[in-house]
Amino acid sequence: MNKRWQGALILILCAAVLTSCASERKGTLTIYAGLYEDHAIKVVEAFQKETGIKTSYVRMSGGEILARIRAERSAPKASVWYGGPADTFVQAKAEGLLAPYLSPNAKWIDEKYKDPDNYWIGVYVGALALVSNRKWLQDVGLSVPQTWEDLLNPKYKGMIVMADPRSSGTAYTILATLVQLWGEEKAFDYLKKLQGQVRSYTTSGSTPGRSVGMGEAGTAIMFAHDAVKFYKEGFRDLLIHYPGEGTGYEIGAMGMIRGGPNEKEAQTFIDWALTKQAQELGKQVGNYQWLTNREAVSPEEAVALEALSVVPYDQTWAGANRSRLIERWVKEVQGGR
Question: How far is CA 282 from CA 9, 111, 273, 286, 321, in A?
Fold first, then answer.
């Protein structure tokens, strides 16, 4: 073989190698995270290290994520929605904002934690609770509320904090819980009375717990696992009670955004996030939800739903009625503000 042909062969081989390398390059991934910042950071770091896929995240409350995906539907910026109550995912599915994906690792998740059409799947579970500051209540001479009805005691006026259901998945879970517990008319009659007791409404569902922990208010309505996190961080006066009449819960979900970039990488993330190892990352940074993977070891502090008096919470119904119930809450409870 003469030198001319040898040179051409070398060029062909180099081009083949470069093409092969290029085909193996991994894309990037952007996630909208509806869970705690420290949890999101831990997950992103572990996923990047294990897969080599460069990943970024934006942390928002569930309602904020839904609004962002709506606004971006013609040109999505993110590929995966990770964390936050499944109710909001149900609404996103109905609006055509999510894409179906059946992960091979979905076999490790019980059917009750999955969308039957594979638009979302649960990664954790947590129940609502009444979270109070023991010292604050003692200082003002009040006992700790232990039921929904207790919150209407005139002595608690101005001492309660909760989030706004327009932005917070936690707050919408509260609203949907009361409707499913008592029926819509009784629930809204209760919420109108509760309005007079509430000190403030926050954007995020976990913020009320920090406010109560710091002694700025007496009782928060929030997810119990968030309160456990604050207790572990040093707010030792926090007390957790599950309402005696029954409580609701969230299935913290995950789904793929329709039309989002880098679909292959998004699927890889979902597969990975359903594994035992990925689900157990949260407790390493102080997150205490019950985990959905049957093989995963939930935190010792997590409480299984089976140990509580929970309402028969229908995620599908809650998601389908989310816009209507929030609009009614704004009109009748907030006076249209």
Answer: 53, 22, 11, 7, 31
Placement of tokens 């990664």 in the chain: 123
User: Which H helix or E strand runs over 270?
Assistant: helix 263-273
At 162-196, the pLDDT tens digits run 999 999 999 999 999 999 999 999 999 999 999 99
Query: Alpha-carbon distance 243 to 305, whole Å?
Result: 13
Q: Which residues pair with 200 in a beta bridge?
A: 161
pTM of the predicted model as reported, rounded to 2 decimal places:
0.89
Q: Are 89 and 123 spatial neighbours (Cβ–Cβ below 8 Å)?
A: no
Sorting pLDDT into bands at 50, 70 and 90, what band is 27?
confident
Q: Can you tell me which residue has the tokens 């409870």? A: 333
* CA pair distance 51, 26, nearest whole angstrom: 9
Q: How far apart are CA 251 and CA 313, in angstroms?
A: 10
CA–CA distance, 328 with 308 (Å, rounded to integer)? 29
Helical (H) or strand (E) element with 271: helix 263-273
pLDDT over 50 (residue 10): no
Q: Say yes or no to pLDDT of 335 above 80.
A: yes
Domains along the chain with CATH numbers: 27-123+251-299 (3.40.190.10), 126-249+320-333 (3.40.190.10)
pLDDT per position as a tens digit, 74-96: 999 999 999 999 999 999 999 99
Q: b or e along 118-131 (b: 16 or more beta carbons within 10 Å of the residue's beta carbon)? A: bbbbbbbbbbbbbb
Chain-centroid distance of CA 258 in Å reads: 19
The tens digit of pLDDT for each residue in 285-301 reads 999 999 999 999 999 99
Q: How far apart are the first and last CA of the chain?
A: 84
